[in-house]
Design a protein that fits this description.
Layout lengths: L3 E9 L3 E6 L2 E6 L13 E11 L2 E7 L2 H11 L6 H10 L2 H10 L2 H4 L7 H11 L28 H13 L3 H12 L6 H13 L1
Antiparallel strand pairs: 1-2, 1-4, 2-3, 4-5
Helix pairs in contact: 1-2, 6-7, 6-8, 7-8
C-alpha cells in the first residue's frame, strides 16, 4: 500500500521513530531506531511496509529498499513474524544472514531472538538461493550489534541501547551477559552501543 514516506524525523525511541509529513506524524517501527539519530530534524526518505492484522495496523520503516525487501522475504517464512524479522535485520549484517542461509548454518541463525532450530531450518528451506537480489553486498542500513538490560549506569546512550536490545527480543539474561563489556568500552553513541552489543551477542 505504501512504498515510502518523506518527511522530518521528530522522535527517536527504543522501538520506533516518528516521521512528520504534512502535519501527520507516522510511527514507524524500525530495526534500529537510533541508526537514524544523525538524521533527526532533517528531511528523509524512509521505505515502509504496511502490516495489517486483526488487532492492529503497523508501519515498519527501513533505510533502504533492499532492507525492506529482505524484511518481506523473512516474514514470508513460517514462524517468523515482523518482530522476529526486525531482530534479524538489526542484529545481523545482511551479507552474513544471507551467507548463513546459503551455507545452511543453523547455529548462526538460532542466535537471533525468537529463532529456534525449526524456524532456522524453515528459513533455509524457503530462502536458500533466493536472496541474491536482496543483499548482494552488505547494506548500510543494517547493523550488527548486541544489547542487554541493566541497572542504570549513568550513561544515557548505553541505557537507551540496552532498552533497544530488549525491544528486539533479547532476554535480560543475555543482555546482562554483555553489559559489563559494553560499560568498559569508550563512550559511544546509542547506535554504536547497539551495534557493538549485537556483535557480542552473535559472536
Amino acid at each position: 500500500m505504501y512504498e515510502y514516506v518523506k518527511g522530518i524525523i521528530t522522535f527517536i525511541g527504543p522501538e520506533y521513530i516518528v516521521v512528520e509529513n504534512n502535519g501527520i506524524g507516522y510511527r514507524l517501527l524500525t530495526p534500529n531506531p537510533f541508526a537514524f539519530s544523525k538524521y533527526e530534524q532533517t528531511n528523509v526518505t524512509i521505505y515502509v511496509y504496511h502490516h495489517v492484522r486483526e488487532d492492529a495496523q503497523l508501519l515498519f520503516g527501513f533505510m533502504t529498499l533492499e532492507e525492506k525487501r529482505l524484511f518481506e522475504k523473512l516474514i514470508s517464512v513460517s514462524g517468523i513474524g515482523p518482530k522476529g524479522a526486525l531482530a534479524v535485520l538489526a542484529s545481523g549484517e545482511p551479507s552474513h544472514v544471507v551467507g548463513a542461509i546459503d551455507r545452511e548454518d543453523e547455529a548462526y541463525l538460532i542466535k537471533f531472538p525468537g529463532i529456534g532450530k525449526k524456524t532456522a531450518r524453515q528459513m533455509i528451506l524457503d530462502l536458500k538461493g533466493k536472496l541474491d537480489e536482496v543483499s548482494p553486498e552488505p547494506l548500510s542500513g543494517l547493523f550488527q550489534t548486541e544489547n542487554e538490560p541493566a541497572a542504570p549506569s549513568g550513561n544515557a546512550a548505553l541505557e537507551e541501547a540496552l532498552l533497544a536490545l530488549e525491544a528486539l527480543g533479547y532476554s535480560a539474561r543475555e543482555i546482562k551477559r554483555i553489559n559489563g563489556r559494553l560499560e568498559k568500552e569508550e563512550k559511544m553513541s546509542t547506535d554504536e552501543y547497539i551495534r557493538k552489543g549485537l556483535q557480542l551477542l552473535l559472536g
